[in-house]
Each structure stands twice: as structure tokens, then as C-alpha cells.
């Protein structure tokens, strides 16, 4: 059943290599992709230029017709601004033009942790079987612009996503098992 009263949400995952823009509708209270477009980030001289390109992609809704926009970026966000790795420009909410009033930058792995709390997890691939202990923190780790990670921390009857910038620190490998993992990450990023 479609919720025809809910406005769509405009999103982006902006990394050091590419940016994926998506328009999501709401079905039975859950986000459903309506359209997704990907562009190479390094082809743009600024965040504002990247946002202008997104506005020209022909998405079927204008900023005024959406309930908001959330853009996930690698790195720390301070006062609405993020210094992005691998590009020569920063992401700044002041460059959002018509989106400014409904626009938010969030850390990319905070977004991943939030996704772990949604029905999208029903289609996730299990790597190691197990049942999370409801009293313990759950790690969310993945390869991206760096080795990103965040956590889902128990709070009351649920879990709260916590962002981390540890993914932008050097990742040391010490033994044979860790070196195999380093090779896996290197191949995944290639």
C-alpha cells in the first residue's frame, strides 16, 4: 500500500570516487527507491557544482515537493561542513541552494548504522551467523573511502547509531589472518 500523503525523500551517498543520488518514496512506512543516479565525484570542481548536476538529472520531484534531503559523506561534519577525502573541495550545506532549509549532511557510516535498523537488513548477506546480545554494542564496519565504521549502542528498548571517524585512521595489520583481510579489502576497493 502506498502512502500517498508522504512526500518523497532525496538522498545521496557522496564518496571520494562517486556520488549516488536517490529519490525515495514511502510504502507501508518504509523507504522505496523511485530513482537512483550515479556520477563520478572528481568530475566536479565543487560541491555546489555536484548539487547543480543532481538538480539537472531529471528527478521527478523538485526540492519543494520533497520532505527533505539527507546526504551521507565520509569524514567528520562540523557546522554543516565536511572535509571530503580524495577530492579538492568540501561539502557545505550552504551550497545546497533550494534544498538549504531541508538539507542535512550526515556521516556515511552513521547512515549505514541507521540502515541496519530498517527492514533493508532482511536482504543483507550474513557473513557470520549469530544472535546479537541486546545488552551489547553492535559494530558496523565496511570498506568505502576508508575502512568506515560506526556502532549501534543499546539505549532503552532499542539501539542508537553512533558515528566514528576511526575509518580515516591508518589500519595496521599484524598477523597472517589480518594480512589476508588487508588483501581482501584492497581487492574490494580495486
SSE layout and pairings?
Elements (H helix, E strand, L loop, with lengths): L8 E6 L3 E10 L2 E11 L6 H9 L12 E6 L3 E2 L2 E3 L6 E3 L10 E5 H8 L22 E6 L3 E9 L2 E5 L13 H14 L1
Parallel strand pairs: 1-4, 4-8
Antiparallel strand pairs: 1-2, 2-3, 5-6, 6-7, 9-10, 10-11
Keywords:
190 residues; alpha+beta; Nucleotidyltransferase, domain 5; five-stranded mixed beta sheet; three-stranded antiparallel beta sheet
Description of the molecule:
With 190 residues, the chain is an alpha+beta fold. The protein folds into two domains: 99 residues, ATPase, nucleotide binding domain (Nucleotidyltransferase, domain 5, 2-Layer Sandwich); 77 residues, no CATH class. It is 16% helix and 35% strand. It contains three helices and eleven strands. The strands form three sheets. The protein has a five-stranded mixed sheet with strand order 3-2-1-4-8. It has a three-stranded antiparallel sheet with strand order 5-6-7, with no helix packed on it. The protein has a three-stranded antiparallel sheet with strand order 9-10-11. The longest helix is centred in the last third of the chain and has 14 residues.
**Computed structural class:** alpha+beta
Task: Provide the β-strand percentage band.
Answer: 25-35%
Indicate the percent of residues in helices. Answer: 10-25%
Mean pLDDT across every amino acid position: 84
- Tell me what the CATH architecture of the largest domain is: 2-Layer Sandwich
Bulk shape? globular
What is the first-to-last residue Cα distance? 41 Å
Tally of contiguous helical segments: 3
The CATH homologous superfamily of the largest domain is named: ATPase, nucleotide binding domain
The beta-strand count equals 11
Q: Indicate the low-confidence ranges by residue numbers.
A: none
Amino acid at each position: 500500500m502506498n502512502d500517498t500523503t508522504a512526500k518523497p525523500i532525496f538522498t545521496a551517498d557522496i564518496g571520494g570516487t562517486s556520488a549516488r543520488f536517490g529519490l525515495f518514496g514511502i510504502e507501508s512506512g518504509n523507504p522505496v527507491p523511485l530513482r537512483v543516479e550515479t556520477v563520478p565525484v572528481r568530475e566536479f570542481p565543487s560541491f555546489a557544482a555536484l548539487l547543480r548536476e543532481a538538480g539537472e538529472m531529471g528527478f521527478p520531484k523538485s526540492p519543494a515537493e520533497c520532505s527533505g534531503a539527507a546526504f551521507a559523506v565520509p569524514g567528520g561534519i562540523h557546522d554543516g561542513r565536511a572535509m571530503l577525502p580524495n577530492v579538492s573541495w568540501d561539502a557545505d550545506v550552504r551550497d545546497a541552494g533550494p534544498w538549504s532549509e531541508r538539507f542535512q549532511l550526515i556521516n556515511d557510516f552513521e547512515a549505514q548504522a541507521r540502515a541496519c535498523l530498517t527492514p533493508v537488513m532482511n536482504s543483507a548477506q550474513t557473513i557470520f551467523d549469530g544472535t546479537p546480545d541486546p545488552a551489547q554494542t553492535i559494530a558496523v564496519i565496511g570498506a568505502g573511502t576508508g575502512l568506515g565504521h560506526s556502532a549501534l549502542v543499546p539505549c532503552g528498548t532499542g539501539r542508537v547509531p553512533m558515528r566514528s571517524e576511526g575509518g580515516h585512521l591508518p589500519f595496521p595489520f599484524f598477523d597472517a589472518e589480518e594480512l589476508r583481510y588487508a588483501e581482501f579489502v584492497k581487492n574490494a576497493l580495486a
